[in-house]
Amino acid sequence: MEERHYVIGTAGHIDHGKTALVKALCGCDTDRLKEEKERGMSITLGFASILLSSGKKIAIIDTPGHEKFIRSMVSGAMGMDLVLLVVSAKEGIMPQTEEHLAILRLLQIKKVVLVLTMVDLVNSALLMKREEEVRTLYKKFFPHESEPKIFPLSSYTGEGISALKTYLSEEAEKIEGKSPGGFFRMPVDRVFSVAGAGTIVTGTALSGKIQKDIYSGKSGESGKSEESKEREEILEAGESGKTGGAAGVYCIYPEEREVKVRNIQVHGEDVPSAYAGERIALNLQGMEKAACKKGDIIAEKGSLQPSFLLDCRIECISPFSEIKHNQHLELLIGTKHIPCKVIFLEGEKIKEGESSLVQLQLQEKTASVFQERFILRNDAESETLGGGLVLDPCPSGRHRRGRFPLTFLEALENEGEEALLASFLKKRKRNFSSFTELKKRFSGFPKIQEIVEKEKISHLVSSDADNNTNSVFFTEENGSTFLFTIELNGDFFAILSEEEMLMRKEVEDYLRDFHKKNPYKLGEKSVVLHSKLFSSYNKNTYKALLKAWEEKGDFRFGEGFIALSDYKPVKDALYTKIANTLVNDMQKGKYSFMKLSDHFWLSEEKKRLSDVVASLENKGTLVKLDGEYYTLRKLFENLKNFSLEKMEKEGEITIDALREEFGISRKNAKLFFKATDRMGITKDRGFESARSVP
After folding, report:
1. CB 345 within 8 A of CB 359
2. What pairs with residue 461 in β-bridges?
3. What residues are paired with 61 via a beta bridge?
4. Hey, is 151 helix, strand or coil?
5. Where are the alpha helices (DSSP H) in 452-538?
6. Which residues contact 35 (CB under 8 A, 6 or more apart)?
7. CA proximity to 42, closest of 21, 23, 15, 9
8. What per-residue confidence (pLDDT) applies to 489?
9. Are 11 and 101 in contact (CB under 8 A)?
10. Which phi and psi angles does 510 have, rounded to 5°?
11. Distance (Å, rounded) from C-alpha 205 to C-alpha 188?
């Protein structure tokens, strides 16, 4: 199991000691800009790493506290798993303290730790008062959470720093962090150029894993790079999809521009790959700095779908202002900020504590995902009004109030994206959907993307769905849903397992009736079953379906027929009589092959003859030569082995050779050759009397 990573961040009012705290914890000054040094305040995000007592190194993000730089604060908070809310014991709670805490709640930051700084400047009575104030404020925004952890400390004297470090080390084992599964996604928070390296982008990975492109190297004497040679070796070995050496294809969204990752750094060290929850620097090959900007997203190709629209659930947190229909606000999502218009799908407005389903119409594209969190601000008033989560990252079009089925978004909200996939497949019923189609249709839905990622299907296969080893398993709140999958032309196709179960039952019912009416037959012809039950499927899809059933053992398959798995043809006295007659007559005739219609059969025997012959052929007792002509397997093998030996020694087998060895007639020798040609044992060279090796 791959290790989970997480990011620590700071929040709080300006001049309350966030940057000083980070320096005390890490020994690093995150104010890197000249203007920040001159003004003594953070303007943009600062980054550092902290070495915990466990030996684990994790990223820490220092956010600016001034209200003018709230966008930067939100950009940093998006990737945080634990936040140190910093409050000066000297000044106490200030406007940005409350706004930052409100933003943390809207973003659903899982862990908030309260830090009282500058305790060396206050007495014990005031310190106790401040502790009570921050505790009360925390419970206002997180009423259902347990009592917050409060750390009084001084970054100047070092008091309390050790205790906080110890706590962070302990929490490292408890914090869930971000899952390394799913597709890679990283909002860009910095873009810059380095001489000799080119364009560098940084950000916090929110999901998945990224690998550098090992094939982008310098050319050697041969004109091929070492990496190119390595690629050729891998491909020749047929292991390009197994080694993990070849990186995936990545794009810059929303422009969908493909990029190659020349190098990856985590905490200033070169690494071959990086994971969700890590602060990452990517060196992008052959790309100008202007081609990527803050707010863009680096993600796997095809995993996201840029859109001017977002269907969302929003919540108002402002005690002073409402969010209204058609209101123009600013959307802060990922590391991007976009002017937008709020279109209410129900009602006209919401006030503090209320929520509503809306569509956000954006002035520029973004590439979001299901359940991504965001903030809504009134930039003109410098006020955070609320926030919410994305339900549909790529709606089909603009919605009109009263004409859009809210149940669709409510189902997404309550049941999750798996329910969306199930709903889609239910509408298609028995029409198989390709994973390629589904991946494109549901870009922006991480769980669906993971389900339909064929390279990862082996991790999703379950044997619990009615003993269906071909089923992909995923869980909903109200139970379980399964996908029945088949493989066809290098892609996977799926329907809901409940539909497959109904199809399978129809086949079972049909075959049960067939066996009852045809007790001697091995089973129904596959082509007949296709025409009667699955005529809407092309032959390749039908064959893939049968193959899946065969692998599961649902039915028994033979040469061109299908039967119930537990069915055995009836072998009564009539069957025995016909079978014995065939075997005995063929033994007597030897290489004078038997034509079925030349034999005298009673009326009842004629009715069952073809079934008995098919049964004996399936058992390997009989071999069909051509038309109605059959022979015993052991006689056929004698002729075949002799022919193979002759062809190996002399290059051919002739009718004369067969006649000399076995006394076979020319007519019967020709029948034998027709059979061996059909089986690929011999090849007709254009001479009727001779055959060679194919």
Report:
1. yes
2. 472
3. 9, 47
4. strand
5. 497-517, 526-533
6. 43
7. 15
8. 82
9. yes
10. -60, -50
11. 9
Alpha-carbon distance of 303 to 183, in angstroms, equals 7
Alpha-helical segments (H) within 304-434: 406-415, 417-428
Tell me the two tokens of residue 445: 């839905």
Q: What is the pTM of this model?
A: 0.68
Q: CB of 469 within 8 A of CB of 463?
A: yes
Local structure of 118: helix, strand or coil: coil
CB 341, CB 327: distance < 8 Å: yes
Asked if the peptide bond before residue 569 counts as cis, ω within 30 degrees of 0, the response is: no
Residues near 59 by Cβ (< 8 Å), separated by ≥ 6?
7, 8, 47, 48, 49, 204, 267, 278, 279
Tokens (6 digits) for 187: 């909002």
CB atoms within 10 A of CB 466: 14
Percent of the chain at pLDDT above 90?
Answer: 35
* SS3 state at 458: helix
Q: Crossing angle for the helix pair 417-428 and 406-415, nearest 10 degrees? A: 130
How far is the C-alpha of 565 from the C-alpha of 570, rounded, in Å?
15
Question: What's the DSSP call for residue 596?
Answer: G
Q: Are 345 and 406 in contact (CB under 8 A)?
A: yes
Inter-residue contact 293 to 191 (CB < 8 Å): yes
pLDDT of 27 strictly over 60: yes
Rounded to whole angstroms, the Cα distance separating 351 from 319 reads 8
CA–CA gap between residue 659 and residue 640 (Å, rounded): 14
Q: What is the 8-class DSSP label of residue 178? A: B
Structure tokens at 118: 């500058």
Whether the bond into 254 is cis, omega within 30 of 0: yes
Contact 408, 391 (CB under 8 A): no
Angle value at C-alpha 244, between 242 and 250, nearest 5 degrees: 120
Half-sphere exposure for 151 (CA within 13 Å, toward CB): 23
Domains and CATH numbers, the chain: 7-171 (3.40.50.300), 185-218+227-300 (2.40.30.10), 307-413 (2.40.30.10), 417-498 (no CATH), 573-692 (no CATH)
Q: From residue 652, how far is each of 309, 564, 569, 638 by CA, in Å? A: 73, 44, 41, 17
Coil, helix or strand at residue 324:
strand
Query: In 195-317, where do the E strands start and end?
Result: 198-204, 209-211, 250-253, 257-266, 269-271, 273-275, 279-285, 297-300, 307-316
Distance between CA atoms of residues 297 and 101, nearest Å: 26
- Predicted pLDDT of residue 38: 42
Site of tokens 């589904």 = 438
Q: What is the dihedral of CA 466, 468, 472, 478, to 10 degrees?
A: 0
Q: Which two tokens stand for residue 104?
A: 């943390």
**CB 691 within 8 Å of CB 676:** yes
The string of pLDDT tens digits covering residues 426-477 is 888 888 888 888 887 788 888 787 777 654 444 344 444 444 444 444 433 3
3-state secondary structure 522-549: CCEEHHHHHHHHCCCCCHHHHHHHHHHH
* Token reading at 45: 């995000």
On the CB side of 661, CA atoms within 13 Å amount to 16
